[in-house]
Design a protein that fits this description.
The structure is a homotetramer of 224-residue chains. Helices cover 39% and strands 14% of the residues of chain A. Chain A is an alpha/beta fold and 224 residues long. Chains A and B meet through helix 3, helix 4 and helix 5 of A and helix 3, helix 4 and helix 5 of B.
Chain lengths: 224, 224, 224, 224
């Protein structure tokens, strides 16, 4: 009997970002998993996913897009918009799809796997950071709005977490990474399961008092 | 001889939000004003504006869109995207247009007239608040990136400021407003010129050390 | 076999603030409890407590003092200092006492039961809020400093949590409370066990990546 | 006719921290200066200062103490308390002394020259950072409380600003400094007059809408 037993948990974009670790952690805790890996930047994809998902007790909104790492001047309109198409618009579609059943049951959890990069300025992050910032403000507003319905919406604002999308082994081998990790007082990357453990906490009954909250998860890089 | 004398200052969307107050304050300080009121959500509009603007020493990115005040469930995809079309994508286009000349001169100021609503969860703000949040994270990233070029990009995150778009007299007369203003310890709206005075500070040489910063302006509603 | 089995957990000021709930939650998870209820504002008391405590795997720094609820002008020097004598100086003494053994073992957790009142301005909070603010900055600095020793120091910044010190039934019956709770989007107090569940998360191995962090716990009253 | 003409401005601890730059900037703007350099950690000193100061329109609470730069374990009780004796208790005494006349006149400004170190964890800052954190929470609470009296209390949370106490030329010559300044995206120290210019803004009528606010001033090291 795990902490998620009896819970139907939807995990999106399973092959990217925190997907694999979320699957492993929530499966180990007895969740009934609804796994999906379609491209949610396609119009209608997020809505279709929810329509086919049946009951969803927990939505783990795991959305990722390759950080373009362009300077502002290199970030043309297409690159800029693509971040919002991948990270922001599907998030709203997922939330819009899943909220009615949660509100009706007066029970439900949404955890957005977001980024700490939205909390602190960084060079070459204008497009990605801006879209991640939109996610966090969105979570604050939706979380506060639906709190009276006993539905909890929160976000993890993470960085320095091992995952195939943003911190693959190839990136960990670069000098840029060696320089950048100095900014994390803890001096190491988080294992993927550690971020999944925070998601598990935010998906469980014990965190019902968290609503519309952004929880930094960054090894001391940001601390509030 | 005003504090802006010799400076060419571009103010966008002059008929909305802080437009009128910015015009008045910067004119009084001797700026050479470049005023524009076109709809910047039209594709290409922001780019065209900059191309025709000549030298721009200060860009006051005054972008506004009516807050839809819809619940999350009432916020369909069109409403949601329209906030980004009005507030976020034109901001990047304006910045992208104006930065090259500023970087080349190693001098320039961009002040984004943003919203404190991005800093704190509020019901019925999911679309608007999310787009305003994107603006703030964008400013942080761009501001930090271009700081070494001696160009300063900052944002005002305001609320409870008199302006025709968000706090018109008709809204000030509602019970909703009477309840809401209780949340501002100062107990009054800011006059428009007070927000413009902060923009003036951020547009002047005395604030060169501010880069990528979000300055709340909210009468104590948020204080950091 | 609970999540704290084999762990020696020190809880201070057990009769106040979150003491009772921490005892119950950590006992249920199999911790070996070291319980203390002495007045830690007495010089030397905190140091003596640690000297007699033996091995401490987890320190739950539960420090409380009655909020004087005085206006600034009513807050004389004695009242003001008394908050620091109760909340800040003993915290440093406890940390100073317990860190050497934790650093030597390269293992240890300190969770400070702090207050969200330090995060947002409130009338009649100058003394109490200031001392609570000192706690949070202290945690940030110590947490970042000792992170490389594999010791984790974090804080909960809570409010609107049922407890005998700050939200006793008598206070819950007041009009002041009825007005104040409107500021919490969730619309209810947290049960004491919910705050203890967060402390449990921060005391466990799954949160090793949290260092020097301030976690608001406030039902949406603050969200980052 | 300067921006401070007709204003009586009290500057404390003039030989330390931002004292010299505040004197120069406010004198140039026509203020009538009340300058004091006594040791305000002496009991009663702050109270005596205010009693002898006559009318004070603007209080620039410039309080400094040498950062001990001790590790947590090296920070004994005396070192720890000395930071609060120098930075926190005199601040309250100054505010307590000066507020009654400001409240009576329904006019007055208090600007606290604080530190950004309270906003972000740093090694070897536990005592200093904690006291600076107390200052900032204090300003939030007092600022919000006295806002209805038309008195404005705000703080500058600065770092990387040239001054004889924290960034003297001798420190600027160290390798530690060379490493540390990399954390400031702007890549330079602020001149002292730049911080004084922010204090001037916060001391003037144009910033009356700022109450209980903490304004980071850190060249991008923190941005909100």
């Amino acid at each position: 009997m795990g902490r998620m037993s009896g819970k139907r948990v939807l995990i999106t974009q399973t092959s990217a970002f925190m997907g694999a670790d979320l699957v492993e952690t929530f499966r180990a805790e007895g969740a009934e998993l609804i796994l999906d890996d379609r491209d949610l930047s396609v119009p209608g994809a997020a809505t279709a996913l929810i329509e086919g998902a049946g009951r969803v007790d927990v939505l783990l909104a795991n959305l990722a897009a390759e950080q373009p790492r362009t300077t502002v001047l290199e970030t043309d309109d297409d690159v800029f918009r693509s971040m919002f198409e991948a990270l922001v618009f599907p998030l709203h579609a997922l939330v819009l799809g899943v909220l009615p059943q949660m509100i009706e049951r007066r029970a439900g959890k949404i955890v957005v796997m977001g980024s700490a990069s939205a909390l602190k300025g960084m060079p070459k992050y204008s497009a990605y950071g801006s879209a991640r910032g939109a996610q966090l403000s969105y979570v604050q507003d939706v979380g506060v709005e639906v709190a009276p319905h006993n539905v909890q919406v929160n976000a993890i604002a993470q960085t320095f977490v091992e995952n195939p999308t943003y911190f693959p082994p190839s990136y960990q081998a670069t000098e840029e990474f060696a320089e950048r990790i100095k900014g994390a007082p803890i001096g190491r990357l988080a294992h993927g399961w550690e971020s999944a453990a925070l998601a598990l906490f935010l998906a469980g009954k014990e965190s019902d008092f968290f609503v519309g909250q952004v929880v930094p998860f960054a090894g001391g890089w940001v601390t509030r």
